[in-house]
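Example 3.
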Amino acid sequence: MEQFIRLELPNLQLLLPEMVVLLTGFTLFSLDLLQRRINHALAVSVSLVGYLIAIFLLVFNWGAKGETFYGLYRRDEFSSLMQAFMLLLTLLLLGFTYTYYKSKRSLFGEFYYILNFALVGGMFLVSSYNLVVLYVALEAVSISFYILTALLRSDFNSKEGALKYLMLGGLSIALASYGAGFMYLYSGSLDLRYILTHVGQNQYFLVLGLVLFLIGFAIKIGAVPFHFWLPDAYQGAPTPITAYMASVGKLAFFAPVVRLMPYVQEHFSYAWITTVGVISAITMIYGNLVALVQKDVKRLLAYSSIAHSGYIMAGISVSEVIGLKAVIYFLLAYSLMGFGSFIVLALLEKVPGWENRLEQFSGMRFSAPWLAFSFMVILLALLGVPPTVGFVGKALVFMALSFEGLWWLAFIMIAATGISTGYYLRITALMFMKEVNGGLGLNASGLERSLLILIAVGVVLLGAVPIILWNFVSLSADNLFVR
Amino acid sequence: MEGFPFASVSMLLPLVGSLIILFLREELSKWVASVVSFLVFVLSLLSLLFFDFSRAHRVQFEERYTLVPELGLSFHLGFDGLSYVMYILTTLVSLSAILWSTRDHQISHRLKEYYIWFLLTETFLIGVFASLDLMVFYVFYELTLVPMFFVIGIWGYKLRMYSAYKFFIYIFVSSLFLLLGIVSIAVVHYRQFGNFSFNYFDLINNQYSLEFEVLMFLFFLIAFAVKTPIVPFHTWLPDAHGEAPTAGSVVLAAILLKMGTYALLRFNIGLFPEASVFLMPIMVLWGILTIVFASWFTISQSNVKRFVAYSSVSHMGFVVAGMFLLNVEGLRASITEMFAHGLTSSALFMMAGFIYNRLHSFNMQALRGSIKFMPVFAILVAITGFSSMGLPGGSSFWGKFLTIVGAREYTLLLAFLVVVGAFFSAVYVLYLLKTLYLDAKEESRLIHFTDLRGFKLTAFLLMVVPMLMVGFLPFLFFAFYDPYIQNFLQYLILKVGG
């Protein structure tokens, strides 16, 4: 390993956004430590400033690419794109959290810096090939998510969800690290690129290691049959956190798999296609079928999130670069749609007596028209009605499947989408076609309204003018796909 | 004016109109909608002056804006003979439907939304017929679902929500196969030419093996067979058409069904000529079976709206059968029938809605003799009925007559089968007319009925006058698409080889 011998100064310019975010985190931490009761306006503004600077640095150094710390950290188009989305989604999230936690009487100072640590972990998770970095980053994201899930201290569901998440999350990390161990045993390296291009003696170790590693991630992304924690954790978590897990969490946990895919394809093309294809088929059918019978909208959306993991995995199973493009597009698309859908619930949960039941959405068009229209757009996007991001994502996945000749998976995806029509339309129909008397008593600030409408507009605009995202997605996929 | 972007302007106008409605008072929305749809109609008539009929097989008023160069995706609009007819039909029917809605009792609440959805529908429909890029076509094809979903679900009759679901799910799921088909042939194009493209004129250069071509044909067919609809896939239609408000049914029957038949002709036959020739006998027989079965279903209906809805299915049978005859008469018949059915079915749905406003019932029994004291209405309905039946001078005559002529070119038996279909379709129209005119009923209630007038009369006349024009001056309409048909058949011969 000659790279360990060569001494190299770390190129910190690549790490600037992460450093800024981490610094923000420490500032928030000290703020919470120093003040007896944290000043939320101050905490929010510190976070805002930090993230804005990070975004600015990210955009300003968009061309900065390369590896540093001896290949531990890698910045490329893919990681920049993912990080930009993560930062933007975190910024959006901060617009909704204060009023939510206030209405739940759970305003804690921890929230800001734990959210920040989750973000930092996510930012590292999308930008490394190294098993150790991936492990640490995975732990950082996961542990932050356990705490964030449990942060509604008086709520039983929140604790239950957090515990389940903790158990299965711990299992997933144990499996992933065990797998990492086998891969190290096989190759003597911790760099995934090296491991997968290395021709060693015991292929079994590689296979075993990869399978365990991927099962670890399959649990995190909620692939069936490793999904059991997901509905409970999503339902139990404070809803803004659910939104965060469904968006930033999905981006972060999918990223290493996306990075891995071109390398694994080279070795185990057939096995990969069948395994991932079958899991994706089961995931999308199961997720949609169970979502169909849910009465609780939050749980319904959690299952829809599982189903979307299935669609994304369908793209991962494809061995061509178009599959990667589809996956990245769909990931970004889902992060926006999933975020929006849970945020709608977060807004509604401030209404006294709101329980996320399906019937409660009746006549939403009259009681909160702006919310109803935004939610309609988001739901139709999740369904894949053009011209939304969801549609572009699905069309790209279909294209990738057709490229690979995976007709059976394409048919299953059609069936799954067909099933999903039932529940997305039901909510839409309830909101618009049922007319009920009496207002809802929803008071949302102008900021919250405009942010939600912004998300809805973004969902449509990014789909109607796909070139906006496509160029970034295409470039990052091309660069990941080294053959 | 040669290069005036008629397609995009007539798509933009309703869009702008719906934006204006959004910011205006509720009562004004109907006037804005009427004016906008009238402007679009005038614009489409104006475009007649600049349409080169001798070169109707070429795409005219062409516009192209690149969307994603890497995927070969472009916003490519334009009209040739076929889509031009559909464009005129769209603007005409939209105007008529909106005029009708302004005086419809069913449309008494949430006016803003209603007219916004309607104007959006018009935009999307023009988009469907104008787009030459398959992905853009698909986007508009799917988008028409959303406004119609709400129009049926909010302003419909009793079973409105159920029907709206059924409508959306049937068409959405079936059209996912279309999406799969579209991306698949784009991938084939990439394999053969090295670049992705969704453009119709690029994709017709693809070469397929027969099995693959039949598979793709079936993918497209699933979507369009449900949309058209052909008989076993028609079950969404009576519910959607039966429960939608009058104007909704009008747009559904007159234009949304034409999307299916238009796309069958343009994409299924155009992109997969060999598969079409291969499957031709099946498709023609399927069309004839559709006519016969749908006619039987029609006669057994007790709800007049469902009656008209089923009659639409049987007309679509003629369109499909004529189209797949793949000769001049067959194609002429098919396109003429598309236009004609758009007019007659709209008028019949307006009839049903009009009588409902008077009698508050759709029941055929309740309708007996109900038009006796409304002379203007009675005459117009009679013209519509006889047109729909295929009486010479009526609009559907040419569709039916030319299908028979086209079928005769193959075998006498086929022609005979079409005649049988035509017979059944005559039976149900006569049954309807008998119920409306001749059956007795106590007349005291009927005397007070006011006749058709004002906006509703205008809307009705907008359908009846072109109906008579098609009947008596068919060559005016043939001029639109004869060059297109010639060119299309030549292309088929070139592809398949005789």
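The mean pLDDT of chain A is 90. Residues 122 and 252 of chain A are 5 Å apart (CA to CA).
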